[in-house]
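Researcher: I'm preparing a figure for a lab meeting and need a structural model of a single chain. I don't have an experimental structure, so a prediction will have to do for now. The sequence is pasted below. Please return the structure as tokens so I can convert it later.
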Amino acid sequence: GLITLSDDKIVVPGFIDKHVHGGNNSDGMYSSLADAKNISATIAKEGVTSYLITTMTQSKENIETKPEDSQINSDSIGADGLIILLPSDNYDFKMKYYNCDGKESTFCGNGGRCIAAFAHRQGIINDKATYEAVDGIHNVSVSLISFNEYHVELSMCDILSYKLEENSLLIDTGSPHYVKKINNWHDIDVNAEGAKIRYDKNISKDGVNVDFLLNEDGKIRIRTYERGVENETLACGTGVTASAIAASLWFGGNNIDVYTQIAKLNVRFDKIDGQFKNVILSGPATHVFDGIFIFA
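Model: Understood. Here is the structure written out token by token.
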């Protein structure tokens, strides 16, 4: 029966379909927003109350090139970029990451954990997998905590070289990062100060991500200005990794919790003769919602 919530809202029984290609002469792959609404109205009449359009019927080449045609809209759900899961000839899958400027970017650490959780949710991988990304090969371990919560451990690239100063570290953890030691985490103007460093050609001719690190009585806190987003991001996996290595070099340790604006992540590694190997980035990944991406 119907459950009445208020005068104008009711809950109705229905079905969930997580795999549709279209409906009523509208194709999910090539549809406009009007076509997407047509599909929704059509399948709703059949009792389907939740669905996810399947878009991967396009060619691999078309899927890879489409994000470069336009900027990614970050105003609706707060996304800083787009990650695409592609087939791989030699591994479980291939990851491609595009910044919100529409350009393919260097490795995204938290995105690398989230795509593994997504692949696990879709049944593409089991608890352990290996995939390829722009910076090389990554091993990943995924644990389901609840129906939408995962714990993901991701291997990062070995760190064999870097530039260490008293108050800064320039390092590449899959993406280039400049870690700066600070004394005040809350009042710093991350966008203004981050942009100065990001565009400083004396630091990096190609630009660099910037992490502001505070050691607060042994608790490592960071805030990150991300290249390509050109703004502060609330949590950056490669930045967390860079900051954990900076903290190890400045304060010691090889198993370090790093606190971002929204999450606590952990980085552990083997420190051998000033090099960092067997680097593992771990932390939560949460499935928030299903959506439709329309290639316009």
